[in-house]
Amino acid sequence: MAKPLVSDELWQLIHPLLPPKAPKPNGGRPRVPDRAALEGILYVLKTGIGWEHLPHELGYGSGMTCWRRLRDWHAAGVFTRLHQVLLDRMAQANQLDWTRACVDSTSVPAARGGPKRARTPRIAVGPAASAM
Length: 132
Fold this sequence. Notes:
This protein is mainly α.
């Protein structure tokens, strides 16, 4: 297996946030360990390779397995909770510099949905527009 991308200390923070494994009453293939799947996810994100190109020799499982685990963990809110845990730890260690923080509308929605605007009509553009 390659050099670990997740330290033991970081794994101790992440592991309790992961959803419990679903039971397999009918048996089946053994599940790839969560830590190996997380490292596979990080490997893909770090290197920029496609999921289907994740080398099996690294011991992370298949790219599809890692992708599914990422999808499921995202849907379960794991990464949002992890972000909060890391921010809390950094705040306790006085390592947050809020003078460099930025908030935009993707982070904080407008109050009551923001002002209502009139719909603008669509304008046809391109070769199909000249045929009209």
